[in-house]
Specification:
With 172 residues, this protein is mostly beta strands. It has one helix spanning 2-15; strands at 25-36, 44-58, 61-74, 76-79, 87-104, 109-124, 127-143, 148-158, 161-171. The chain has one domain: Porin, CATH 2.40.160.20. It has an eight-stranded antiparallel β-barrel.
């Protein structure tokens, strides 16, 4: 199931490349830790791709839609999980669509708020499981110039899991 999600995400992102010529399109890369609030799980490290379109802009705020795909590059370890004898590796893969608002705090600094729908695929010790969730997040960003920005962000993946990340966005 996990491989299916990966191959579905790639065509969706590539098809969206037709938007690249449109004003307000941006691409991003992010990396961070997936923190699970269960004492038997160690954190995993994920990297992600972001494709966004800023469709409304005012001097003090902007509205965008973002597609995001993340995948684990460094597995966490899980112990004492039902159906798993001993300990095993775990990883998570997510694909999401968010509505995003950015509120200007100062000349180059902004607050980012997002909410959307996310599908996750979790693999623990060889067992796969997938779920859909409503998800939200918040972060701080800094515009280096009119094309390049950096962000730190907290995203709630599900009730007991979150993604704490840093990333960079480039406006095309």
């Amino acid at each position: 199931m996990k491989k299916n999600l990966r191959w579905l995400a790639l065509p969706a992102m590539l098809c969206s490349m037709s938007l690249v010529q449109a004003e307000g399109v941006y691409l991003g890369l992010k990396a961070g830790e997936v923190d699970v609030d269960l004492r038997t799980f160690d954190n995993a490290t994920n990297v992600g791709l972001v494709l966004g379109y800023e469709f409304f802009s005012q001097p003090n705020y902007t509205l965008s839609i973002e597609g995001e795909y993340t995948d684990t590059v460094s597995d966490g370890e899980a112990c004492d999980v039902e159906g798993l004898v001993g300990c095993g590796d775990w990883d998570i893969q997510t694909i999401a669509v968010y509505g995003v608002g950015r509120i200007t705090l100062s000349q180059n600094t902004y607050l980012k708020l997002k909410a959307g729908l996310q599908h996750e695929e979790v693999e623990v010790g060889g067992f796969d499981d997938g779920h859909n969730y409503l998800t939200f997040g918040a972060g701080l960003g800094y515009n280096i110039n009119n094309k390049l920005s950096v962000e730190v962000e907290y995203t709630m993946i599900e009730e007991d899991a979150s993604f704490i990340s840093a990333g960079v966005n480039y406006k095309l």
